Write the structure tokens for this entry.
Amino acid sequence: MPKENTMTYAVIGLGNFGKAVAETMAAAGQDVIALDKNALAVQDVMETVPNAVCCDSMDIEMLKEAGIQDVDVAIVSMGSHLEASVTTILNLKELGIEHVIAKATNERYKYVLQRIGADTVIQPELEMGQRVALSLMNPKIIDIFQITNDYTIMEIKAPELWCNRPIETLHLRSVYGVNIIGVRHGGASKVETEVSSEYVIQPDDYLVIAANAARIAALDLD
């Protein structure tokens, strides 16, 4: 039977981040090519990522030989090497890669990578730091995912003040800048995404909310 997901991926740069991305995708059965110019880094993933290639991504001819022009998404994870990241992204765009995701270590690198054509730029260390800080400041935050600098999705334990009341009576959007986009009941693993405004929040509920990131820290979840 054909795979439901026919997307193909390339992960360029096999440091801790790139290796984790490539191995996770391969374990999930995705079609992924892992590349690094360091032969030892390539050898380190060969058992978990069958298609691992020693390749200097700054050389467009080597990228062609590796078959990179045939992938749909490329992840450039050489975040601390700006010149290599820039040249690699330019090569990928010249080869017609539809979507390029690049890792940056700081805002300056992020700005440069966006300007030269990266479709998405991520800062894993910054994003994880924000998640940890927000979770520590409020233990009722179960998980948090930063979509953009201005937009956050997170799962929270239902605040006591919201319990036993219909969602529509809480005026969450106007008061807190929050939209409830899912509910998980008690110990259930499934999240219900069709939530009526008439739904009465229960004390054992976990709520998946979308909110303005600037207002999250001030959100009263007691």
